[in-house]
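From the thread on structure requests for the teaching lab: each student submitted one protein with a one-line request. Submission from student K.M.:

"Model Zinc ribbon domain-containing protein from Shewanella canadensis, tokens only."
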Amino acid sequence: MALIECPSCKKRISNKAKECNSCGANLSGNTESLSLISNIKRSNQLMNQSLLCMSLFIAGVVVWFWDGEPAQGVRSYIAGGLFVLGFVGYLITRVRIVLHKRKKV
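Reply posted by the TA:
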């Protein structure tokens, strides 16, 4: 008995198992299609995270210049936090997307 990776959830399971204990994926059929579906879902998750981070970045810029002049006080801290969080999150997510695309299915 050997341990293999579930094509759906990537957890280690027995190669004799008919379905995954974690996600319930049926392993008796075509596992290539399960692997492809899992890959597409992960790509969509990463793209959604990228969009969310870009939205935070844009929100930071909008809050900073809301009244036509640079923010002051608490508003500047909120805007700066949104700006930095969005920018750093976007960079990290883009790196994760590139690494995901390089990974073989």
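TA comment: The mean pLDDT is 85. Helices lie at 31-64, 74-102.
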